[in-house]
Amino acid sequence: MNSNPVETKSLNKHRLHAICPYFAMFPETFARESILSFTQPGDLVFDPFSGRGTTVLEALLNDRDALGCDINPVAAVISQAKADSPKLQVVTQRVNDLENQYLRYDHASLARESAQLPEFYSVAFSKTTLQQVLFLRKQLMAQDSRCDRFICALTLGQLHGESLRSSNFFSNQMPHTIAVKPDYAIRYWAFHKLSPPDRNVFEILRSKALFRLENGTPSRKGTVVRTDARKAMRHFWKHRGQVAAVVTSPPYLDTTNYEEDQWLRLWFLGGKPFPTYSAISNDDRHTSSTKYFDFLADVWQGIEPLLSAEAHIVCRIGAKALSEEQITKLLMISVRKAWPKAMLFNKPEVSALKNRQTDIFRPGSVGCVNEIDYQIKTT
């Protein structure tokens, strides 16, 4: 691993990392160590499944340039907020302006809109909090500035969570990484006699903006777009042949449906007020290993023109029905569709998942048991 002093900037976790606890098993330490091992300052790092933007932010913090993409709107907004964060005073002023606009807004129209939503919303949020959320949803929908994207990401982070433990979440008691299905949540709240807290959304956003931004932002700015990873070249064609390393974690095989798990945040971004399936992508969750690794092969071939001649791929992958040997074989077959001479740089590392937060709402659920980390040299 390299030891250049500039590469120690993010040894202490940057507060931007936790802007939104979007469900992912991809810690900043893994991204950081991978970036430092396979790139030099000034190199370009790319994550075609950017998720929470961990790779992008770590690259920027460690004096690299960064690109990312994700087809999920929630992931794209969060990654964009980390890739190009505004100054604290700009965010604070914008939140103040939004609050003043809300105070002058037609609250009767917000009340009518609230009444038209499914029952879940009236049990998940207090009357006032829901109207504030609806107002912000309207105002931030366009996300036409990096400031609005950042506030949107902050809102997504506080939209739901463990309100019995923290006063910073807008919703009734929920996991903060995922939104459980409406009917289940309603029954859970009724059984435990839980009521939604009355939160001032604007106060929470100001507080969170201060916490995330008071220590500054990376001097470098990255670029993240919302797109299918297979189409990344259309957006990043100017960077052909420049990517020194890909550090990524594709959706795990038959483990998590991000569209389903992020349905409430997707609603805030303009989606339906209930869970949807395959409305965003048919590749969000594969149950067939053949289709899954065919999908990955398409991704590798799609991003191949972006990589430099001696680039590395660091990939964290998981599956609950395949052995390490099976995953390794199928992954390398998919990689060699794009890079015929690709080889493993080191022996794969296997780790078991722990502390699955969904257990509180989904006791006994079975997800991915192991994660496997691969380091691949493309030529």
Report on the architecture of this protein.
The protein is an alpha/beta fold and 379 residues long. The chain has two domains: 5-85 and 217-377, Vaccinia Virus protein VP39 (Rossmann fold); 88-213, no CATH class. The protein has 15 helices and eight strands. The chain has helices spanning 28-38, 54-61, 73-83, 88-104, 107-115, 119-124, 127-140, 146-158, 182-191, 201-213, 232-236, 258-261, 263-268, 289-303, 324-336, and strands at residues 44-47, 65-70, 223-226, 243-248, 307-319, 343-344, 349-352, 370-377. Strands 1, 2, 3, 4, 5, 6, 7 and 8 form an eight-stranded mixed sheet that branches. Strand 1 (44-47), helix 2 and strand 2 (65-70) form a beta-alpha-beta unit. The relative contact order is 0.14. Mean pLDDT is 91; it is low at 1-11 and 355-367.
Share in helix = 40-55%
Order of helices and strands: HEHEHHHHHHHHEHEHHHEHEEE
Please state the structural category: alpha/beta
> Spans of 5+ residues with little confidence (pLDDT < 50)?
1-11, 355-367
CATH class of the largest domain: Alpha Beta
What oligomeric state is this? Answer: single chain
The appropriate CATH architecture of the largest domain is: 3-Layer(aba) Sandwich
Q: Output the CATH homologous superfamily of the largest domain.
A: Vaccinia Virus protein VP39
Biggest sheet descriptor:
8 strands, mixed
User: Residue-averaged pLDDT, rounded?
Assistant: 91
Overall number of structural domains: 2
What separation lies between the terminal Cα atoms? 20 Å
The DSSP helix count reads 15
Strand runs, count: 8
Beta fraction of the residues? 5-15%
Q: What gross morphology would you assign?
A: globular
Stated plainly, the CATH topology of the largest domain is called Rossmann fold
If you compute it from the alpha carbons, what radius of gyration comes out, rounded to the nearest whole angstrom? 21 Å
